[in-house]
């Protein structure tokens, strides 16, 4: 289906590993848009009866096929997981530059599982992900943390690896 990349990224924080999986063509045509894809992945990836606060509960970021187009509302992404408050499916939507960054990586969805023993920053690329120690960000307010992240992990930074 046009508008989809046909790839998803699965990140395991516990193992500090990732894998890229091909998305079968019938999935995006049967489960349309970021909401359909995110819901499908959550249903099929979460273990039955998983505790919402368990490292096995998937956190899924998904964009839709209109992302990157000039259509109104196309710069949106959804986050899907099992809610700790209700124990049921939950979803949240946002827009702006994050959705564009997710789309630029060439994945239709990014699935995060596991837990990290220490704070971590992920940089997502078309080739996978890098894991960076984020302990230096702990205690910073939101604006300072954002500025530090942009400085340290921007591809425009000549020291970025």
Strand order of the largest sheet: 2-1-6-3-4-5
Tell me the number of helical segments per DSSP (H or I, 4 or more residues long). Answer: 4
User: What level of helicity do the residues show?
Assistant: 10-25%
CATH superfamily of the largest domain: Aldehyde ferredoxin oxidoreductase, N-terminal domain
Average pLDDT over all residues = 88
Structural class: alpha+beta
Quick one: overall form?
A: globular
Low-confidence stretches: none
Q: What's the gyration radius in Å?
A: 16 Å
The CATH architecture of the largest domain: 4-Layer Sandwich
Which H/E pattern describes the elements?
Answer: EEHHEEEHEEEH
Question: How many structural domains can be distinguished in the coordinates?
Answer: 2
Mind sketching the topology for me?
Elements: E1 7-12, E2 17-22, H1 26-30, H2 33-45, E3 59-63, E4 76-82, E5 89-95, H3 97-104, E6 109-113, E7 120-125, E8 128-133, H4 142-153
Parallel strand pairs: 1-6
Antiparallel strand pairs: 1-2, 3-4, 3-6, 4-5, 7-8
Write a concise synopsis of the structure shown.
With 161 residues, this protein is of the alpha+beta class. It is built from four helices and eight strands, in the order E-E-H-H-E-E-E-H-E-E-E-H.
Give your account of this protein's structure.
- With 161 residues, the protein is an alpha+beta fold.
- The chain folds into two domains: 7-115, 4-Layer Sandwich (Aldehyde Ferredoxin Oxidoreductase,  A, domain 1); 119-161, no CATH class.
- The chain is built from four helices and eight strands; from the N terminus they run E-E-H-H-E-E-E-H-E-E-E-H.
- The strands form two sheets. It has a six-stranded mixed β-sheet.
């Amino acid at each position: 289906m046009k508008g989809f990349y046909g790839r998803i990224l699965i990140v395991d924080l516990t193992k500090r590993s990732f894998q890229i999986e091909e998305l079968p063509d019938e999935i995006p045509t049967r489960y349309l848009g970021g909401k359909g894809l995110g819901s499908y992945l959550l249903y099929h990836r979460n273990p039955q009866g998983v505790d919402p606060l368990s490292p096995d509960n998937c956190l899924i970021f998904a964009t839709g096929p209109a992302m990157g187009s000039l259509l109104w509302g196309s710069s949106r992404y959804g986050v899907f997981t099992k809610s700790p408050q209700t124990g049921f499916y939950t979803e949240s939507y946002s827009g702006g530059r994050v959705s564009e960054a997710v789309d630029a990586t060439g994945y239709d969805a990014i699935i995060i599982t596991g837990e990290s023993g220490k704070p971590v920053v992920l940089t997502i690329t078309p080739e996978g992900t890098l894991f960076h120690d984020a302990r230096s960000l702990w205690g910073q307010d939101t604006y300072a943390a954002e500025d530090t992240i942009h400085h340290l992990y921007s591809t425009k930074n000549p020291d970025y690896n």
